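Reviewers of the previous submission asked for a worked example of the structure-prediction workflow described in the proposal, so we include one complete record here. The input consisted solely of the amino acid sequence. No template or homolog information was supplied to the procedure at any stage.
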Amino acid sequence: MSDALESLVFSLVPRARQDERLKRSAASSYIRVGTTPGRANAHTPYSHIGQTAEKDIGHLADLIKRHLLQTSPSGASTLRFTNLLSRLLDQPVLSRKHASLQFLHTLTSSPISAPASSFLPALAPPPPAKPSSKAATPTEPHFAARTHKGKSKAEVLREYRLRLGQPHIPEHLILRDTLYLLQGISGKYVQFSVSKDAEQNKELVFTEDPVRDPFLRPISTNLDHAQRYFVPAPMRALIHRLAEVGHLYQRVDAFVREREGRVGVGMIEQSLCHHLQTQLTAYYRLIAVLESQMSIAPHTDESGKENNSIEDRTREEETGLTLKRLDVWIEDWRLHAHGGALVNLIHGYAENGDPFIRKFTNQLLEEVSKPFFATLHKWLFSGELYDPFSEFFVAVDPELAHLQYMQPSLQGVGQLASDGGFTGGDVEDASEEHAGGLQLWEQKYRFRKEMLPAFVGETFGRKHLAIALKYSDIVGLERSIDTAYQIASQRLFDVFFDKYKLLDHLLALKHYLLLGYGDFADQLMDTLGPSLSRPANALYRHNLTATLESALRSSNAQSDPPDVLRRLDARMLEYSHGEIGWDVFTLEYKVDAPIDTVLDPTAMMKYLKLFNHLWKVKRIESTLSAGWMRIAGGAKTFLRVPGILFSTRLPGYILAHRFHLELEYDWHQIRLVMAEMIHFIRQVEAYCHLEVIECSWQDLSHFVQKKEGDLDALIENHRAYLDRMVKKVLLLSPKAGREENLLNQVRDVFTMVLNFREATDDLYNYCLTESARRDAEKDAARGVYTRMETAEDRRYTAESLPDILSRVREYGAAFSDRVQAIVQALASHPDLDCRFLGIRLSFSDFYKTKKEQQLRA
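From that input alone, the workflow returned the following structure tokens.
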């Protein structure tokens, strides 16, 4: 043996220094592996180390991992090799890492015909394919010592029970028998008792089996004295519960087979048997699915021998079928009837034609329904739901069970917060507070139809409150439910409208957010107008609040209750760059519990949406009114200026010798267009307030005055009141994707009106400037200088007049075209009130005639 080979063997196998036979065996293994077929007779081994055929360590590592996965499918060896490889690559001392890995891989991959003792002690032998009873090799104690260190507590407990002579049966064995029991077949360890009577309930018999040690040697040669498997009591109870399904399956299957072999079975009975057989087939499919969930290779065989690694057993316990999982799945198949459902099931026999059965059922129901009526009685008089076993037809949401209605606390309502700019944080906080009342009313208690007894009826059950005497007085029960329902509903109305003044809050919303107070709306518009024309980021809360309080004191709103006025506040919506105060200003009405049950956050959002639209309508109406008064007041003064001569020809004009004749015609056209605009906006305003808001309020107030129905009916009527206003005021269409088309056209008309008003203001200022300039020229001709030239004089010159007149004509024509399109759209609107609005906008077929003239032109 060469010195290089001997040093290599000593470095890899340290025990070879003392064992000469082991040293020769390792050297011969190296020579056999390193010798190529073409040089089999050569004495010098041909080594693959140092060859440049495979220098990639990554590729070599993949080959080794593939080999390890073939020998140990659990993946533990592969994971360990990856860890060792990373540590090897981090070592700076070793220079020929690829060669070392190549040598070790060649050793493990080559076929070795030497006996078991020729294995290198540092390398674990490959696991045997089958259990063998050969004598243990010298490497077995070392291998067993290493595996003993990794035993789990369950394995130690299993060995302890084995030494005591009371080993528990492995779960996979009893699980296999349980699947047999579900099919009505006796297993090896659990069997059905033999009974001659098929109708008699069968018992389970647990048989015993001798236990064998891990090396397949019986503990006792005499099987009568051998140790037996022990089935614990909890597992016996679980198997008894599961075997009930198999017993029922046996009885159903026996019934079907008996009818199949009988002559003269009727067609209806044959149809029943066919349906039962179909259900049994589906049951077989389910059993097959459960069998597929069992581990293909259980970690212990019938003798208790370990077959799989700890990782395999852990994976099987997490994903495979167990007795507990089987019990959970079987539990879902069972027919459970308790509480009201059980009462309902028994009541199904009360209408039997046999007087004896009917009388017995009534007597049984008389006793069985006493707890149900006791719960019903307590639910009525104390308002408490005592249902520890979920048997009542009213259930409480466990997440909301601890919440109660809060008494209203108006401290701080309507007070100022800070003087900073507005943000959306306050609105979000308010919405969270407002979510309480309606959420408790609609979600804290829910109706369970499956628990409602048939003799009560769903109509009475949904009234939630009832009083009952006993089952024998069903008519009295229904009468009592009606009486209690009416009393409770009347009490609810009294609490909401007398104690918490719900009607005052509804009127306040109508007067302020729906602009029902005309003097308040006009005063607020006049005082807020200059401020809202500024950028949104230049507005502050204290200014808006002060203006709101001033408008309240200057109008009839000051006579409203203080509680109502404290809830009113001025807010701003979230704004973006470029928006002004008119775009983001809004009024807010604060509500709290318990009135937020009716005025929930969704309802308040609808009120704000209506206010924003009505506020825009009011702004347009105020703008047109002010513009009309301005034009009408100046028509006979400075607008009729004397004629002048122009020194230049203006675009679109012949040389004018009388200026006032040209502008007189334009001002006449402006007055015509403005009258058309005023007619449009006033018709829209009258439609919103008179035909929609007032009519909807009339229906709601009529319901409130009758005081009929319950709180749910009040909430539904208020929602219908709001939905009707939103649908009609905003001119919404029921067509999907086109709901707000008409509303967008109306808003475009509002924009045209504002642009037209701006253009007419420029023309007005031009005429005013021109009149003042000519008056100054007359004074100068007399030697009196009364006027200095200003910025407006340079802005409103004769050259700017054509541009101003073109804008006036453009916006006037665009307004007429848009209104004409709105009238046509309203004519085909599905809502009757919207169609009547279109008729009033063009009551004399003005826009129809105008369109015909345009077509002829």
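The two ends are 119 Å apart (CA to CA). We consider this example representative of the routine output the project will generate in years two and three.
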